[in-house]
Backbone:
C-alpha cells in the first residue's frame, strides 16, 4: 500500500507523519512525473486552495489527478482539499476538480479569529478531535453523498464512494482514526 | 482557552508552509498576487523599497486600505505594525486581520519593549536575525518567525546570513549537554522551556519563513534549501517589470525548490528584476531595529 500526498503547498508533511504512524508508505507529489508512480490513494492536504489549483494547472497535473479520481482512485481532501473536490464552491468562482457532489463555502467561519477546535463524532466514532483553521463547511449534498460528521448543524465531513473530505484537519491532531478510515477505503478499493 | 488560541495561530502558519506571502499596496495588486498563487498577502501602503526612498516615519496602513484588500481576496491577509506599538496591533485585531507582522520595516515605536503578543487573539509573525531574537519573540507570543534580511533592497545576503545563523545555532543547541541548557537560556535571554524544546526537537516550535531581499525564483529556492519553510516577497514582485509572471514563477520555485530544471524553466524571460541596492550602499539598516 502506497499513498501519494499532494505536496505543492500547505500542511503535507503532517499527513505523511500520520501515515507513518499507521505504518503506511507515502510519497510527495510535487510535479507531473511524480504521478507516474503507482499509488493506492491520494491525499489533498490543507493549505490554500487557490495556490494549489494554480500550481496543479501550471504544472500540468490537474487533468491527470482529476482522471485518476474519476476512475476510482481513493482520495482524501482536508480543508483546502475539500474545496478542490467540491462540485460547487458557493462564494468562489474557480472550477476545481468537482468530482464530489457537494456545495461548499470557503472561509465559512470567517477569518482567523473564527478558527476553533472541538471534539465530536466521526462516522459513529465518538470523541474525535476536530481542528478548524479558516475552514469551509458543506452547505448541501447530492444524493450519493454520505454525511460523516456534523458540528453545530453544519456538515463538516462527507464521503462519496472512494472520496473522503473533511472541512477540518485531522492531521493536526494525534488521533489517527480518520486516516485509518481512509486507509480502509484504499484497502477495499484494492481487493 | 488562551493556549488553545495560540495553538490555532501556530496551525494557521502551518497551512502557509511551502507558500509565498506577497506584499501588496492595493486591492488590484492583491488580486494579481492571489491569482499568481500567493498563499497570503501582506497589506501595506508602501512596499519597503518605497519606504526607503521616501524616508520619514512609516506607520501602520490606513484601515480602509486593509479592508479593501480583505474584501478583494479569499486568502489570508496580514498587515504590519511598528515594533512595540500595541495600539496599532489592537486596531488590526479589531479589523480581524489574519496575521500581524510586528515589523522592523516600519519605524519602531518602542526601543526596548516588543508587544506582549499573549494579550492578543490574532496571531503575530516577527523578524529575527539569530536564534536568541527568534526565541525571545516566541516567548513574547509570536506564533510564526521570519528572517529579517534587509527589506527593500532586493539583496538576499542578509536573509541568507540570518537563516544560516539560526539553523547553525539550532544545531548547536541540539548538541549541547542537557545540564548546560540552563546557562544557554541565560545567554539567549529566553525561557528554559524554549531552549529545551529546541534541544529536543532540533527546530523552532513555530514555522520559520525567509524574508528581506528575496527578488528572484533562485533567491526563493536558495532560502528554501537553507531551511526556510516558505518565503515572504516584499518589494521583489511589484517593483519588477512583470509582477504577475514573476510572482507565479516564485510560487513554482518554492514548490519545486530542489529541482534545478523547474527553476531554470521558471527563471526564463521574467523581464526586469527590481533594480535593488547593495547592502553597502544603504544607510538605514532596518534589521538593527528591535533586538
Residues:
Amino acid at each position: 500500500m502506497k499513498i501519494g500526498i499532494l505536496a505543492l503547498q500547505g500542511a503535507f508533511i503532517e499527513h505523511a507523519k500520520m501515515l507513518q504512524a499507521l505504518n503506511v508508505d507515502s510519497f510527495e507529489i510535487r510535479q507531473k512525473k511524480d504521478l507516474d508512480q503507482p499509488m493506492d490513494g491520494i491525499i489533498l492536504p490543507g493549505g490554500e486552495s487557490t495556490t494549489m489549483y494554480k500550481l496543479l494547472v501550471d504544472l500540468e497535473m490537474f487533468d491527470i489527478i482529476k482522471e485518476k479520481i474519476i476512475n476510482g482512485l481513493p482520495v482524501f481532501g482536508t480543508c483546502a482539499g475539500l474545496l478542490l473536490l467540491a462540485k460547487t464552491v458557493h462564494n468562489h468562482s474557480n472550477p476545481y476538480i468537482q468530482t464530489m457532489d457537494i456545495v461548499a463555502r470557503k472561509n465559512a467561519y470567517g477569518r482567523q479569529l473564527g478558527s476553533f477546535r472541538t471534539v465530536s463524532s466521526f462516522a459513529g466514532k465518538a470523541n474525535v478531535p476536530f481542528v478548524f483553521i479558516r475552514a469551509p463547511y458543506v452547505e448541501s449534498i447530492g444524493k450519493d453523498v454520505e454525511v460523516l460528521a456534523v458540528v453545530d448543524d453544519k456538515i463538516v465531513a462527507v464521503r462519496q464512494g472512494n472520496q473522503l473530505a473533511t472541512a477540518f484537519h485531522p492531521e493536526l491532531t494525534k488521533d489517527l482514526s480518520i486516516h485509518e478510515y481512509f486507509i480502509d477505503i484504499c484497502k477495499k478499493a484494492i481487493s | 482557552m488562551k493556549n488553545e488560541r495560540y495553538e490555532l495561530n501556530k496551525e494557521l502558519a502551518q497551512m502557509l508552509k511551502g507558500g509565498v506571502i506577497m506584499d501588496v499596496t492595493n486591492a488590484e495588486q492583491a488580486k494579481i498576487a492571489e491569482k499568481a498563487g500567493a498563499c497570503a498577502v501582506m497589506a501595506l501602503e508602501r512596499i519597503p523599497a518605497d519606504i526607503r526612498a521616501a524616508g520619514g516615519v512609516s506607520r501602520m496602513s490606513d484601515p480602509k486600505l486593509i479592508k479593501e484588500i480583505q474584501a478583494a481576496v479569499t486568502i489570508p491577509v496580514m498587515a504590519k505594525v511598528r515594533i512595540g506599538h500595541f495600539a496599532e496591533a489592537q486596531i488590526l485585531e479589531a479589523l480581524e486581520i489574519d496575521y500581524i507582522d510586528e515589523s522592523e520595516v516600519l519605524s519602531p515605536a518602542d526601543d526596548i519593549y516588543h508587544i506582549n503578543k499573549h494579550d492578543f487573539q490574532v496571531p503575530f509573525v516577527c523578524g529575527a536575525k539569530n536564534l536568541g531574537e527568534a526565541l525571545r519573540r516566541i516567548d513574547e507570543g509570536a506564533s510564526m518567525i521570519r528572517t529579517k534580511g534587509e527589506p527593500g533592497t532586493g539583496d538576499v545576503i542578509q536573509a541568507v546570513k540570518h537563516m544560516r545563523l539560526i539553523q547553525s545555532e539550532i544545531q548547536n543547541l541540539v548538541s549541547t549537554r542537557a545540564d548546560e541548557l540552563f546557562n544557554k537560556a541565560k545567554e539567549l535571554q529566553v525561557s528554559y522551556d524554549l531552549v529545551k524544546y529546541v534541544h529536543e526537537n532540533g527546530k523552532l516550535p513555530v514555522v520559520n519563513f525567509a524574508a528581506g531581499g528575496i527578488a528572484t525564483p533562485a533567491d526563493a529556492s536558495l532560502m528554501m534549501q537553507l531551511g526556510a519553510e516558505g518565503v515572504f516577497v516584499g518589494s521583489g514582485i511589484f517593483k519588477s517589470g512583470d509582477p504577475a509572471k514573476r510572482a507565479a514563477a516564485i510560487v513554482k520555485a518554492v514548490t519545486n525548490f530542489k529541482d534545478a530544471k523547474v527553476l531554470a524553466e521558471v527563471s526564463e524571460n521574467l523581464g526586469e528584476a527590481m533594480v535593488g541596492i547593495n547592502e553597502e550602499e544603504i544607510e538605514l539598516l532596518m534589521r538593527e531595529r528591535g533586538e
Summary: The longest helix of chain B spans residues 157-174.
